């Protein structure tokens, strides 16, 4: 196959992203493609999804593609679809909750769904994922929109260290297999599996041990079994391909993608795909300090020796390096980005939303106060222990998010507002003490919480805002009583990656006493670039 000419450099990417934060929340940035994704001129700039899509996996399905990624303690595993592997939109979530201990009591940060795999077999879609302390789960559906089956607990991770990163494989003779790694990144096991994915048939065989070897993905071509795996760790790893004439090995090894001379660190773990024209592609993640693990797309070619070549070998050492920009897989595309804003007027939550841990379903509503999301306050000591915090991914290099809250249902001890959660937590909200409301800004890590500023509030409606420019390290929380004049509040706001996830916004409502109360969120406007 002929390689396409490299179309852009690091300098081009930097120039394209010199965009300042807008203060006008009605101005949509989501359709401006200059910083990343589809450029509207037949090319794309990496990342293709500039948000936390860690451990992405994808398949070709029908006339397009489907993608899933790790969501950890945030519920659902979002399923996305695309016609071109660059412009993605939400379809659904493949589950609503994990009915295991710890997910109702806010004790499983960094647990939950690790490195799911999506596959189609015999007319049915399957998603397999592991949770590190429980084991292997599977859910299936007849079509992407669902309904998806309740997650089946297929097998306990009984090696003493837990399981991670599963991948099913159905061989040409009908035999099914399941590969996975052991918590702590290796070794890699292969099990025989029932054809319907509901049962493992043996204790498994170790087929490979390597430096932080995980993320197993099976492929078979020309009689060769290929395992595409990441090695080397999250921030500085690389992609390896193994091959053997037997699924049980022994396997030959070739490193196929590394950072090399580029500024794209740790380009690894993801999906190897063939498009309808016979061109191959690789979707992988890159670790970043704020957004988390963002998704990139690399061209792939196959050599006469039967080994794939990922990206471009810029330094001539025989190992590919990631591209910053490339020709779109499909011509004539119209750029768009995943949904973010919500006026809560629909009968169901937008698919962009994910609950932090399991939700309390009878404590939130879209119909109790039509046109608003109503969150009833559950008792909690702090934000991290609060039930029914509703979150979504943080996108792009710059952005503005604004939420309007009606406080007519507030009660003493209640806190509600807008948070940026991650390694550290940053809140701008309203609290009520002794019959008085205050706007407050609070920072927290684990059990250590500091209120940096509080201002008395007399109005029943309040607008809370967070603006950011990641490249300039500029972050601001602010508030308003008229949606026009916003006043900055607080100090030290700097969202960051944590618990295996990028920083992300959340709307929240809880009460530090035994009292109740509720908040009505009229809309959440979020525009990013």
Describe the structure.
Helix content is 1%, strand content 44%. With 529 residues, the chain is mainly β. β19 (268-274) and β20 form a beta hairpin.
- Strand % is 35-45%
How many helical stretches? 1
The description of the largest β-sheet is:
8 strands, mixed
Averaged pLDDT: 92
Q: Measure the end-to-end span.
A: 35 Å
* SS content category: mainly beta
The low-pLDDT segments are 1-33
Q: Which value, in Å, is the CA radius of gyration?
A: 23 Å
Shape: globular
Task: Give the tally of β-strands.
Answer: 38
Helix content: under 10%
List its traits.
38 strands, 529 residues, mainly beta, single chain, eight-stranded mixed sheet
Q: What's the quick description here?
A:
The protein has one helix and 38 strands.
Topology, please?
Blueprint: H1 10-16, E1 37-38, E2 43-45, E3 57-61, E4 64-68, E5 78-82, E6 88-93, E7 114-121, E8 124-131, E9 135-141, E10 152-156, E11 163-170, E12 176-182, E13 188-193, E14 205-208, E15 217-221, E16 224-231, E17 238-244, E18 252-257, E19 268-274, E20 280-288, E21 292-302, E22 308-310, E23 325-327, E24 354-355, E25 364-365, E26 373-376, E27 378-379, E28 390-391, E29 398-406, E30 414-421, E31 425-433, E32 436-445, E33 448-457, E34 461-469, E35 474-480, E36 487-488, E37 504-511, E38 518-528
């Amino acid at each position: 196959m002929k390689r396409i000419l490299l179309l852009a450099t690091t300098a081009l990417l930097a120039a394209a992203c010199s965009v300042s934060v807008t203060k006008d929340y009605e101005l949509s940035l989501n359709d401006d493609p200059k910083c990343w994704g589809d450029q509207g001129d037949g090319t794309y700039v990496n990342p293709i999804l500039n948000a936390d899509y860690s451990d992405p996996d994808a398949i070709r399905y029908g006339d397009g593609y489907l993608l899933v990624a790790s969501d950890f303690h945030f519920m659902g595993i979002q399923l996305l679809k695309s016609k071109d592997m660059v412009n993605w939109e939400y379809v659904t979530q493949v589950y609503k909750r994990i009915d295991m201990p710890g997910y109702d009591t806010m004790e499983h940060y960094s647990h939950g769904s690790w490195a799911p795999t999506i596959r189609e077999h015999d007319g049915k879609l399957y998603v397999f994922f592991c949770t590190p302390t429980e084991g292997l789960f599977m859910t299936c559906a007849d079509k992407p929109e669902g309904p998806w089956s309740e997650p089946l607990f297929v097998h306990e991770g009984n090696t003493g260290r837990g399981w991670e990163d599963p991948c099913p494989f159905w061989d040409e003779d009908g035999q099914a297999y399941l590969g996975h790694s052991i918590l702590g990144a290796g070794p890699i096991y292969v099990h025989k599996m029932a054809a319907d994915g509901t049962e493992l048939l043996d204790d498994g065989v170790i087929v490979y041990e390597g430096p932080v070897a995980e993320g197993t993905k099976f492929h078979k071509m020309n009689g060769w079994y290929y395992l595409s795996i990441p090695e080397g760790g999250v921030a500085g790893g690389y992609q390896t391909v193994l091959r053997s004439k037997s699924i049980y090995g022994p396997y030959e090894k070739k490193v196929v993608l590394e950072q090399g001379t580029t500024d794209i660190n740790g380009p690894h773990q993801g999906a190897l795909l063939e498009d309808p024209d016979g061109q191959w592609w690789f979707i992988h993640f890159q670790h970043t300090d704020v957004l988390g693990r963002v998704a990139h797309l690399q061209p792939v070619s196959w050599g006469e020796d039967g080994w794939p070549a990922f990206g471009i070998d810029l330094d001539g050492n025989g190992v590919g390096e990631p591209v910053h920009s490339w020709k779109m897989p499909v011509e004539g595309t119209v750029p768009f980005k995943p949904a973010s804003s919500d006026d809560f007027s629909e009968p169901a939550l937008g698919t962009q939303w994910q609950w932090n841990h399991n939700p309390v379903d009878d404590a939130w509503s879209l119909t109790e106060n039509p046109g608003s999301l109503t969150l009833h306050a559950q008792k909690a000591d702090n934000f991290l222990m609060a039930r029914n915090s509703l979150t979504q991914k943080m996108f792009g290099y710059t952005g503005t998010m604004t939420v309007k809250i009606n406080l007519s249902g507030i009660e003493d001890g209640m806190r509600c507002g807008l948070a940026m959660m991650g390694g550290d937590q940053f809140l701008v909200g309203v609290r009520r003490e002794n019959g008085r409301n205050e706007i407050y800004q609070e920072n927290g890590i684990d059990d250590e919480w500091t209120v940096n500023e509080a201002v008395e509030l007399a109005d029943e409606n309040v607008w809370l805002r967070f603006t950011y420019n990641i490249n300039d390290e500029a972050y601001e929380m602010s508030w308003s009583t008229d949606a026009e004049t916003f006043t900055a509040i607080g100090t030290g706001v700097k969202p960051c990656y944590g618990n295996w996830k990028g920083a992300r916004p959340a709307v929240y409502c809880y009460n530090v006493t035994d009292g109740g109360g509720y908040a009505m969120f009229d809309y959440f406007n979020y525009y990013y670039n």
